[in-house]
Amino acid sequence: MGTHGLSYTLKVWLFQAVAEERHFGRAAQRLGMSQPPLTEQIKALEQSLGTTLFVRDRRGVRLTAAGAAILPAVGKFVEQAGRLELAVREAVAGRTGTLTIGAINPALVEDIPPLVAALRTAHPGLTVAIREIDSVEAVPALEAGASISPSLGSKGYLGQRSSRGRSRMTGSRSFFRRDIP
Q: Is the whole-model pTM more than 0.70?
């Protein structure tokens, strides 16, 4: 996305604030900016779209038919941009990747569902995959564990990091592998 795209993204975000506040002054205050630059940005957006988005009067603004028509799409766009920003922050902080959980059948039913729910809440950028393993696979995995992983709670899960940036975490009934990009 070039500078034109970034400028357009900013203008759309500003449009949403004015539409929600129905007043340039309140929108500017909410955005932490002064009103004249906000008004200029909205005028530039209207000019680039070739239509008026707001009817302005002394009490505030209201959306024109064109403004009302684009508002739902703008809301979705701003929401997606927020998700993108979160994904970038998570990736920079190293909180993304894939966690593969291998577990014997009883753990799949009893232990894994609440663990996966907690992981998804704590790390929304994490992809979780679950694989059933038998106890023959689980024993070597448990033996390979080197330390308790406090980030997984108090169940005594064990973890080991390889030289290739992979973590292996094991528990009494489960084997975990996290592939970190």
A: no
